[in-house]
Amino acid sequence: MERTRCASDDTDKALAPVLSGDAVQRVQPLYSTIEGAKSGHQAELRGAIVTVSALPGITAEWLDRGLECHSAREVLGREPTPSDDPFWLPRSTVNIDVSSDRDGFNVAVSAYSADDARRILDRANAFAKAKAPSDAKSGGVAH
């Protein structure tokens, strides 16, 4: 993943507002619908959707690639200090899919197991709560 998503000059500098939490607007659970044999359609937790505000000059495609690079570098231990952001999991691989959403982006971070999906959502909620301005901590950040 690092070889395919990271350019040699890639840095997290342009991602700083996202990775610091400053651009995070809200976090929602990410579900997929599966069809059960007897019970019909069921929702299954897959991870989290982190909505971030628009960033100058950044496209959804660039943000997707940048966050995938960040995730790969974190998992491989290439960062000096592991971050607490929800865009990666220690010892695990996540899938990141970014789409435009009016005046920002929806970053869908999904996992390949139910346990990892729960870990992603827990990390995303904790990240958003910890990074929210003090006036938003009392209820301004949607989870």
List keywords for this structure.
143 residues, alpha+beta, 4-stranded antiparallel β-sheet, 4 strands, 29% helix, globular, disordered C terminus
Task: Chart the SSEs and their pairings.
Layout: H1 2-5, H2 16-19, E1 24-36, E2 40-53, H3 60-75, E3 95-101, E4 104-110, H4 114-131
Short synopsis of the structure:
With 143 residues, the chain is an alpha+beta fold. The protein contains four helices and four strands.
Describe the structure.
- The chain has 143 residues and is an alpha+beta fold.
- The chain is built from 4 helices and 4 strands.
- A hairpin with a 2-residue loop joins strand 3 and strand 4.
- The longest helix is centred in the last third of the chain and has 18 residues, at 114-131.
- It has a 4-stranded antiparallel sheet, with helices on one face.
- It has one domain.
Q: Which structural class do you get from the secondary structure elements?
A: alpha+beta
Number of strands: 4
- Percent range of helical residues: 25-40%
- How confident is the prediction overall: mean pLDDT? 85
Low-confidence stretches: 135-143
Q: Report the biggest beta sheet as strand number plus sense, adding barrel if it closes.
A: 4 strands, antiparallel
Q: What would the principal axes of the Cα set say about the shape?
A: globular
How many domains comprise the coordinates?
A: 1
